[in-house]
Structure formats: C-alpha cells, structure tokens
C-alpha cells in the first residue's frame, strides 16, 4: 500500500477525536464499536481529511450505512481540523 506518513501528535489526536465520536454513536445505537467503524477506517478518514458526505463515501471500504449513522459527527470533528 501507500507509504504511511509518520505518526504525528496532531494525527493521533484527530484519530482519538474520531474514535470518541464513533464510540458515542455506537453506544447510542447499541452497536459494537469496532463493527460500526474499525480503527483502520478512522485512520484512513483522519488521513484523507474529508469535509463532505461524498468524501466520506470515498474512504476505502466505507459503507453508506456507516456514513448515515456517523457522517454528521465525523464531519463535525473533521471540520475543526486546521488545513495544512
């Protein structure tokens, strides 16, 4: 696969915030957190910096139902990230 950028604290913080959003949604929906969105997808999301539903759907292996369940929360987290 593509070379992974070196982990940086900002990236790790973003993944943690996305994970928090996912965990809250999973708990509300009574779904397993890893089923709702595996960590790998959260990392892919953090890396691609999606800002729209279309961009979320372009993330590898992303399903429509995941975007419906999580999209607004994820985009809210991603919107707060400064563009590099």
List the helices and strands and how they pair.
Elements: H1 9-29, H2 33-36, H3 39-48, H4 53-57, H5 64-79
Helix pairs in contact: 1-3, 1-5
Brief sketch in words of this structure:
With 84 residues, this protein is mainly alpha-helical. It has 5 helices and no strands. The protein has helices at residues 9-29, 33-36, 39-48, 53-57, 64-79.
Q: Would you mind describing this structure in some detail?
A:
The protein has 84 residues and is mainly α. The chain contains 5 helices and no strands. The protein has helices spanning 9-29, 33-36, 39-48, 53-57, 64-79. Helix 1 (9-29) packs across helix 3 and helix 1 crosses helix 5. The longest helix has 21 residues, at 9-29.
Summarize this structure as a short list of keywords or feature phrases.
mainly alpha
């Amino acid at each position: 696969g593509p070379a992974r950028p070196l982990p940086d604290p900002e990236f790790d913080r973003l993944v943690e915030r996305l994970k928090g959003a996912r965990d809250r949604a999973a708990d509300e929906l009574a779904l397993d957190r890893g089923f709702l969105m595996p960590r790998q997808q959260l990392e892919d999301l953090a890396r691609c910096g999606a800002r729209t539903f279309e961009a979320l759907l372009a993330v590898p292996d992303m399903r429509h139902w995941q975007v419906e369940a999580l999209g607004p929360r994820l985009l809210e987290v991603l919107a707060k990230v400064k563009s590099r």
